[in-house]
Specification:
Layout lengths: L19 E4 L3 H11 L1 E7 L6 E6 L2 E6 L5 H13 L5 E10 L9 E9 L19 H14 L3 E8 L10 H7 L4 E3 L2 H11 L2 E11 L4 E2 L2 H6 L2 H8 L3
Parallel strand pairs: 1-4, 1-5, 5-9, 6-7, 7-8
Antiparallel strand pairs: 2-3, 3-4, 5-8, 6-9, 9-10
Helix pairs in contact: 2-5
Function: Catalyzes the reversible phosphorolytic breakdown of the N-glycosidic bond in the beta-(deoxy)ribonucleoside molecules, with the formation of the corresponding free purine bases and pentose-1-phosphate.
Catalytic activity: a purine 2'-deoxy-D-ribonucleoside + phosphate = a purine nucleobase + 2-deoxy-alpha-D-ribose 1-phosphate; uridine + phosphate = alpha-D-ribose 1-phosphate + uracil; a purine D-ribonucleoside + phosphate = a purine nucleobase + alpha-D-ribose 1-phosphate
EC number: 2.4.2.1
Length: 237
């Protein structure tokens, strides 16, 4: 329950935020999920048009909220959801650019790890390098759900990048050569916030474009058509 807690970015006005929250980057994708998958939906946030909703899926309470783009944005929203509103399971549902030849448009990736070029980890003053990883509990459950549904998924390391337009034209190839499956912009910060607070996080991605094959989906397709990913994520509640 949220009681009457609020922040500068999330103001539920006493409405409930569930312990499990799906986190798409696009707030309109959050609205799409709420409109098409959840029952008894109540909107709990509209601050800065970062829409958040709580409803039920197969009788279980679940929330969905946009996070915006990039590490700083998801860093704020996920930190507040965890530390102010008591969220225990955070599932990012997003898109990525594929880096490996065996990946195609609409393929699903479970981000077991999230390498990054972000400096987000510096706040912890750790005496070495930290490897942001998913919650094994959520990862194992998601893989079991995918297997039961007959869905093929790719599990491995992704890159959380601070740079969408990279001046270094060789960067993508270097990450590909070391086995990175795809590039996105949020998972590493989510994993660090979750680990620091002792809660669960997982990133599920749909391939929206391929960096080397020059293939891509449209904005409408990214907002409305990533249904396989949604089916897995919702069943994690």
């Amino acid at each position: 329950m949220t009681e009457h807690k609020q922040t500068a970015h999330i103001n539920p006005e006493g409405k409930e935020i569930a312990e499990t929250v799906l986190l798409p980057g696009d707030p309109l994708r959050a609205k799409f999920i709420a409109d098409n998958y959840l029952e008894d939906v109540v909107q709990f946030n509209s601050v800065r048009n970062m829409f958040g909703y709580t409803g039920t899926y197969n009788g279980k309470k679940i929330s969905v909220m946009g996070t915006g783009m990039g590490v700083p944005s998801i860093g704020i929203y996920s930190w507040e959801l965890i530390n102010i509103f008591g969220v225990k399971n955070l599932i990012r549902v997003g898109s990525c650019g594929a880096l490996q030849d065996d990946l195609n448009l609409y393929d699903i990736i479970f981000a077991m790890g999230a390498s990054t070029n972000s400096n987000y980890v510096s706040q912890y003053n750790l005496p070495g390098h930290y490897a942001p990883v998913a919650s094994y509990e959520l990862l194992e459950k998601a893989k079991n759900i995918a297997d039961e549904q007959g869905q093929t998924v790719h599990v491995g390391n992704v890159l959380t990048s601070d740079t969408f337009y990279n001046a270094d034209e060789t960067a993508a190839k270097k990450w590909s050569d070391i086995g990175i499956l795809g590039i996105e912009m949020e998972a590493a910060a989510l994993y660090m916030n979750a680990a620091a607070a002792g809660v669960n996080a997982l990133t599920i991605l749909t391939v929206s474009d391929h960096v080397f094959k020059q293939e891509e989906t449209t904005a409408d397709e990214r907002q409305n058509s990533f249904t396989k990913m949604m089916d897995i994520a919702l069943n994690l509640a």
